[in-house]
Automatic annotation (TrEMBL):
Gene3D superfamilies: alpha/beta hydrolase
Organism listed in the record: Streptomyces halobius
Keyword field: Acyltransferase, Transferase
Lineage start: Bacteria, Bacillati, Actinomycetota, Actinomycetes, Kitasatosporales
Protein name, UniProt field: Acyl-CoA:diacylglycerol acyltransferase
Keyword Secreted: no
Reaction(s) catalysed (UniProt annotation): 2 alpha,alpha'-trehalose 6-mycolate = alpha,alpha'-trehalose 6,6'-bismycolate + alpha,alpha-trehalose; an acyl-CoA + a 1,2-diacyl-sn-glycerol = a triacyl-sn-glycerol + CoA
Amino acid sequence: MLSEHRPTRRSVFKAVGGISAAMALGGVGTLATASPAGAAGDGSGLRIVDHDESDTRMCYYRFATDAIGWNPGPAVNVLLPDGYHTSGRTYPVLYLLHGGAEDFMSWDTKRDEGGIRAYTAGKPIIVVMPDGGPAGWYSNPVSSHTGPRNWETFHMEQLIPWIEANFRTYAEYAGRAVAGFSMGGFGALKYAAKYPDRFASVSAHSGPASLRRDLGAVVHWANVSSAAMELGGGMVYGVPWDEARVTADNPMQNIERYRDKRIFLVAGNSPRLDDPFSLFNEPEVLAGQREFRGALDNAGIRYEAYEDEGGHFVRAQRARDDIDGIIERLRKA
């Protein structure tokens, strides 16, 4: 599993070589509801520029949107449950976010034991996997020299309404979960707190939960990685930091917003010496998750957490267990 991530992760590490260890943290068929042509006027602000619905489970869409200055625009994979097209049922939905230097296909192509298709086989849930940029940090950045990269706007104001207008999902708090790996785990924790009425369940697989610890290591990494890989020298949080943004995005400073949610956390406790990216960032992830768990404990907020052998990668069995827990928490199909 770890070897599948290593080439991409090393390329990221080299791209920002010279960062101190303190900063080094990763960090066509027919729908059963509406066809792509029916998406016009759904209020999402998205326009489909490419799509493929030939797979009975995995649908692909690419959009034009003013929020993201890509040409072609950002894409999303929508994984449907078995029997979706004939069941007539309405389903809960999981928004599943990828890590840094990954994309909307990563949960399908880069995960162990068959990836998200295998993890959800036979399970009554829709899984939405959007682009989040190679180093977008699920944020609207302070500055960009590569055009708009407003990933938070794309996800929260455009994609969710589009999904709910075009698929049979429960468009309510009890019908939505958000989860992610690494940068995507941070994005899940951030979205769950900034939009507390949107998601009943949140999961972070090796995702950082504390932005300000260790002299702001995660904020520094977000700034440096976004400048190098995403924003052409622009930054997510800026220098000096936009303190209000850091506070709004920091799970540690928004503990009460997790109350009554299902919370699932995983971090590695023994990264390998021959994997420098994992060696530098997973200890920071683990320390941040422990700090976060302590704050949840002090607030009397329940959670499920694991510290597992190994470094910075998705553990297939934890992903399976998480999906089962999400389905149990959300409104039933």
